[in-house]
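ligand=heme C
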Amino acid sequence: MLRFPLIAPTRIRALLALAVCIATPAFAEREYEREGPPRALTPEQAERAAENYQKYCVLCHGEDRQGYLNDNAPSLRSQSLFESGVPHAILRPLSYGRIGTAMGGYLDEVGGPLTLDETWDLTYWLFWESGADRVKLSENPVPGDIGRGEAVYQEHCASCHGAEGEGVNAPALGNASALAHNKDEFIRYAIEKGRDGTPMVSFSGVLSEADIDNVTAFIRSMAEDGVQETITLRALPTPDEYVINPDGPDPDFELMEGRYVDSATLHAAMEAKQRMVLLDTRVTSVWQRAHLAGSVPFPYYSSLDEKTLGLPKDVQIVAYCSCPRSASDYVIDQLAELGFERTAVLYEGIFGWMNQGYPVIRAEGALETPPAGASNDH
Ligand code: HEC
Ligand code: HEC
C-alpha cells in the first residue's frame, strides 16, 4: 500500500498554485508599445500652468503633486498614471470633475476658473513634470467574466475602493464621471502596474492575467447608462445678496472646538430665518451643480482682497466644502487673519449635509445625488 506524506491543506494549495504558475503563462507581463510625447509647452505656458497648479490644486494634491494632502486626492505624478492617462484621463477630471467626489471641474464652461487652453496646458505640464513615457493603449473593451471579477474585487479591492466602488480612502472606481472617460485599458493598466508611490500596488503576479481582465470587466459593469446632462449656469450673487435673512435674529452658535457647527444646528438656524452669510468654498462649478440655499461662491482660491470687500464683519459667517472641511478651514483661517471673528465651518460638509437629508438648491438639469458612502470623517 502506498503511503502519502501528510501535507497540510494550505501547503497543498500553495503547491498547486505554484504548479499552475509554472505550467501557464498566466503571470507573464504584457508588453506595451510606446507612444510619442504630447506637444511641448512654451516657457510662458509652462510658467502659467505651474502657477495654476499652485493656485488651484495644491490644497488637495500637494506642493509636489504627491497627493494625499487633503481628501485622499490621488498622486498627480505617478509614472503609471502619466504613461496611460494623457491627455484624457487627466484633462477630463480636471475640466469636468468627478461628480459626487471632492474633485470639482475647473473649466470655465462648467463655471470653473480655467480656459480650455489652460486646462490643456496644465494637463501637459503635469505630464512633463512626471517624466513619464506614454504607452499606447487599445480603445477596445476588455472582455472578462463579470461574476468572477466581482468576487476578485470583493476580496482584493473593496477594503480601499468600497464594496460598491464608492471609494473609502481610494478613488471611487464606480463613479459615473470616471467611467464615462476612463477607457477599459486605462483601468486595466492601473491594476496591472499599480500607481507607484501610492497605496495602490501592482496586482501583476498577485492576480492572473485573466482575473485582471475579469475585475476590469466588473468595474466597467458598474457604469450606469449615463444620461449626458447639461446644466444651466446661474448668475452669481452680488454683495447686496450675501447676507441671508438680513433682518433676522443672530444665530448665537455654540461652536464645537471653537469652530464647527453641525448640519442639524445650521439647518435649524436657516429654518428660524437667522441672519448669516454662507460661504461655499469649493470650486464654483460645483456650487453651480448644487449648493446650500443663499450661499455665496467663495472658492478657496479666491483673491481675498476682492472677495472680502462685500463681507460684513458683524454677521455670523459659515463656510462649507465637500472635503468635508479642508477648503473651508483654509478659507476661515485666512479670514481670521483679516480680522473676521464671527466665523464657523460646517462640520460634515455638503455631502454629509445631503446624506442627512437636508435640502440643497440644484442646477436645472443636474442629476446629482450624494455619493452613497460619503462619510463625515475621512
Ligand atoms: C478639494 C480637493 C481637490 C482639489 C482642490 C483638486 N482635486 Fe483633483 N482630485 C481630488 C480627489 C478627491 C480626486 C479623486 C476623486 C475620485 O475619483 O474618487 C481627484 C482626482 C483628480 C484626478 C484624477 C486622477 C486619477 O488618478 O485618476 C486628476 C487628474 C485631478 N484630480 C487633477 C486636479 C487638478 C489639476 C487640480 C487643480 C486644478 C485638482 N485636481 C484640484 C481632490 C481635489
Ligand atoms: C490598499 C488600498 C488599495 C487596494 C487594496 C486597492 N487599491 Fe486601487 N487604488 C488605491 C489608491 C490609494 C489609488 C489611487 C492612487 C493614486 O494615484 O494616488 C488606487 C487607484 C486605482 C485605480 C486607478 C483609478 C484612477 O482613476 O486613476 C484603479 C483602476 C484601481 N485602483 C483598481 C483597483 C483594483 C481593481 C483593486 C483590487 C484588485 C485595487 N485597486 C486594490 C488603493 C487601493
